[in-house]
Amino acid sequence: MVEEPISLHRMRDMSPAHVPQITFDRQELNRILTVYGRMVAAGEWRDYALDFLDEVAVFSIFRHASEMPLYRVEKRPKLKAKQGQYSVIAAGGVILKRGHELAQVLKVFDKKLLKALANP
Predict the structure, then answer these.
(1) Is residue 36 part of a domain?
(2) Torsion sign, CA atoms 61, 65, 70, 76
(3) Tens of pLDDT along the chain (120 residues)?
(4) Which domain holds residue 66?
(5) Count of domains observed in the chain
(6) pTM for this entry
């Protein structure tokens, strides 16, 4: 009996109506990496991961690579007209901040950065 191989990659829908995957543009990624770099310099964060899916782009932030992410910065363009396409989500799934402007959403980390710098 011949077994068929199992395909581990997801087949992409090549129809004209297919929506391309969501990504962060260069300016958005630069803003996120600026905040990330400051927290790395403060010794709070150590690793990150990027996921680009059909409906959401995710920048996950880790204290250690083997852990669950401490925070996720998400971009969901479908929510652009509603509560805003950007959000910062804590490890437990709690949405810390959501909005239309990435810079405003990332300000949620300002207090954490000041606290990290104050406690060496």
Answers:
(1) yes
(2) positive
(3) 556 655 555 555 555 556 678 889 899 999 999 999 989 988 889 999 999 988 999 999 998 767 789 999 999 989 888 888 999 999 889 999 999 999 999 999 887 766 665 665
(4) 26-118
(5) 1
(6) 0.77
